[in-house]
User: Fold this.
Amino acid sequence: MPAKAKSSRRTAKDSDYRALAVFRYHIGRYLEFSDQAAKAAGIEPRQYQLLLAIRGLPETIEPTVGALAHQLRSRHHSTVELINRGENNGLVERSRAGTHVLVRLTKKGQRILERAVEKRLRELQVAGPVLVKTLQQLINTNHTFTRRPK
Assistant:
């Protein structure tokens, strides 16, 4: 019987698990803070995500329901319902462009988004360095992982 070939794959160490746990913890804290900032701005977290998705789309992508569903990682009908709620709250408005429905921020939606984003950017000044440090630790310790041969 042939001897087992040594695997060139690196296995995770205890420090890798700890670093991943810390990274996940800090991402969770930031997301929790984000939800609280949205509520403080007077909107639900999912509405904030919609407003940010609209405002954050690249200029080359039209803000269609499909593009927003993709950006939000949501189903088309769930995105339509979210847009309906945003429209009822005066945050977004729809318009037709041929066969597509475009979604745009209203002035009210833009003001609320700006308030929520300001708070999030301030929080990132605190949370960001911790996230970057933890991610850098994961990248530096795991750069020796090798790809499986094809």
